[in-house]
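Q: Structure tokens for this one, please.
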Amino acid sequence: MLDVSTTPEYLIGRDGAEQIVLRLANNGNLLFRPAVDGYIPVGSYAEFRLIDANGTTRGGTYKQEADLDLMGVSWTPIHASQFGTGFTGTFDGSGFAINNLLVNSRYAGLFGFSAGTIKNVHIASGSVTGEDQAGGVAAGNNGGTGTVIACSNAATVTSTRPDASIGGVVGVNVGTIIASYNTGAVIATGRNSYAGGVAGYYAGGTITANYNTGTVTASGSGSYAGGVLGASGATASYSTTGGGGRNGTQFSGTAWPSAEENAAWTASSSADGTTNQYWKDLGGWNGGSPTYPKLWWE
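A: Here is the predicted structure, written as tokens:
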């Protein structure tokens, strides 16, 4: 039996009516539960924090098992430093929501720097404030191996510092972002900054089949804002809050996307996220009331 007077307290972040399972050592310390089908289950705030314990745990394979409420408690991104071993494993959000994310750090996001795979993660609400790099899902998608797929962000992402790179989903991309979207506001007020609905700054990699419906603002001198990217371009991506260029495809009654423009615009009701099977439909102009494309997983 545990001595409750010495057992640490753990934040859970779940509906109290749900069954919640934790694994504790004899001394009361929290442990990961055994993997199920190769994935270590993550069903609480405290278990999520365990991922950041060391380089080994940041290389694990995890799956979110329920909606999580991070309760507006100040969140330290998973590996918030640009040095050392970042996240190199796999985190599958399973389509569950993450609510009330609150981050205020130099490199800000649910994850800091990731060279692993982050998929099916959905930031449903919150506030992410960064200094150098910030994104709802990750500050940096790095190493050429970092992959963000089928994720979304509705949190507000901001920076008041100069030379910042902030995006709704990712701050700086050097990896792959596929089939993700942003609905949150992205606001950069410092000089020489980059702000984008999906990614703030493109430093390499691939950005395909993403979209933004949130407002994007970069008001500092020498700054750049784009509906999809703050710098460079993206493939088969769009923003409803801006036109062409950094905003991705510009939609109009006479310029709607098609597979002839780019194979990644191929649409199919049976799309499954494999190459060029990202969109389940391409929307329509509808006499001036557009219905915009939706991704296969929506």
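A few notes: Residues 160 and 190 are 5 Å apart (CA to CA). The longest strand covers residues 126-135.
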